[in-house]
Amino acid sequence: MAYLLFPALSFLAVGGILFLMTNMQVGNLFGSRRSTIITLYNGAFDSSSALFLIIKLLHESGVSLRAAFLFLSACSVIHILRTFFLLPRKFIPYPLPDRYTYGVSCGESKAANTEVAAKSQTHSAAEETPLTTNAPVKQERTFRECLLSRFFIWHLLWLSVMQLRHYLFIGTLNPMLQRLTEGEPSL
Fold this sequence. Notes:
It is a multi-pass membrane protein. Keywords: Membrane, Transmembrane, Transmembrane helix. It is a single chain. The longest helix is centred in the last third of the chain and has 31 residues, at 150-180. It is built from 7 helices and 2 strands; from the N terminus they run ααααββααα. The protein has a two-stranded antiparallel sheet. It is extended. A hairpin with a 5-residue loop joins β1 and β2 (107-108). It has 187 residues and is mainly α.
């Protein structure tokens, strides 16, 4: 339905980046390969638009658009369920503590918690030190100060220009390909 296209695209654009950001922390589970996993997530997110080329080719070979989009929706539901039920409620720490578990019982295992509690009780007397009152208190910045900072404004401007360049490329890709192939659809 054509009237659902604009809201659906808006939801995809906004929701997709949120799932990307929440799932990037999975890279923390892989130690020295952390940057590789984060790069793979980002690459999968950026190349997902190429999936529509595959859907177009499948449609031309006889697969209905409804079946293709229902399959994509089922894959998205699996991804959403995995995000909500397997990721921890807060974050995956880096570096990982010993015996850290991932999944339904996220956090440290109970055996590790009892060991940590036993160690903290034995070392509590040695670690108690009085707080110094002369320590400088770091002033926290307000949300408004962060929004009005030069760093945020320049970053917002840079991101906006990059998005406009990206949309310009997407918008002009089809006419450019038609011009290069001289209108031959098989090419």
